[in-house]
Amino acid sequence: MSVQPSGIRLPAVTVHYAQSVDGRLATRIGQSRWISSEATLRYAHTLRAEHDAVLVGAGTVRVDNPSLTVRLVPGRSPVRVILDGNLTIPPTSRVMSDEDASHTLILTTRHAPRDRIERFRGPRAEVVILDDDDGHVDPREALTFLADRSIQSVLIEGGARVITEFLRARLVKRLSVCIAPLVIGEGVSAVGELGTLSLAEAIRPASARWRQFGSDVILEAEL
Q1: CATH number of the domain enclosing 126
Q2: pTM for the full model?
């Protein structure tokens, strides 16, 4: 786990996503189901079962409407964490209704409408207002809050903005990238701007290995 200057241990973060050979998470209209094979999906559910929490951004909830539960392999479902600075996800989203998960945390900001905050609160969901400057949930603030909840490991599954922000902040310990044998062309890039101007500034893993799942290959890297 990462250690804050104050001594707080941040949860160990794994980023997992599936992309095409040309680095796309989805087509230009947002279609992403399913880039990866069934074998890779089972692997993703294994990762969920190994982590205390699974985290995605609001855009992933709005577009994909995932359950974020463990269904394809034996194991418990992790706590679901949604980063939603303005509380834009639909109240009918699966992350709010699926009973296979024990709890859902929605991390938002003071910019979220009060009436929506009250609408989302319930016995299985909790809305948490974090400090912010611009209506945006800061990755380090989110991890600090989760550490206070005794969450020691977090699996990030998207979307591209969330993946990019956590990588840019150097908060990712492990990277798990599925590469599927298809070419999409114009679409949603897996990782956005990291401020890298030279190869010396690029994120390089301390160790890495390749594994094959059906027709897909997965890069597992320790950062």
Answers
A1: 3.40.430.10
A2: 0.91
